[in-house]
UniProtKB/TrEMBL annotation:
It comes from Winogradskyella arenosi. The chain crosses the membrane at residues 80-99. Residues 28-55 form a coiled coil. The lineage of its organism: Bacteria, Pseudomonadati, Bacteroidota, Flavobacteriia, Flavobacteriales. The keyword Transmembrane helix applies. This is Zinc ribbon protein. Keywords: Coiled coil, Membrane, Transmembrane, Transmembrane helix. It comes from the Bacteria.
Length: 100
């Protein structure tokens, strides 16, 4: 059975074609969705790469600084932060254990 598709770009009717014979526009909706999905995935991965590359954490940015005092301050700050996080996790666990 022949499949007749009207080109959305130039309006020419094409029979059993994936691309328009007149303007070479993609006619297959399935192929168009696959290409759009692949492009979205590529864009998402590029955004994630740029985000990770463009905004390193405070600790990652300064842990290997050339000045000793900066490295010491960063490591002390990081240790204090980890201590607060550990205390917070313990309190959350304690409240959950008591409620259960």
């Amino acid at each position: 059975m022949a499949r007749h598709v009207k080109c959305p770009n130039c309006g020419v009717y094409n029979t059993n074609e994936t691309y328009c014979t007149q303007c070479n526009t993609l006619l297959s909706y399935k192929k168009r969705r696959e290409l759009a999905f692949a492009q979205d995935k590529k864009d998402r991965l590029e955004r994630e790469r740029l985000q990770n590359e463009a905004s390193p954490s405070f600790y990652e940015k300064y842990k290997d600084h050339k000045f000793l005092i900066v490295r010491v301050v960063v490591k002390i700050t990081h240790s204090i932060w980890l201590g607060f996080m550990a205390i917070g996790v313990f309190i959350a666990w304690l409240i959950t254990a008591i409620a259960a």
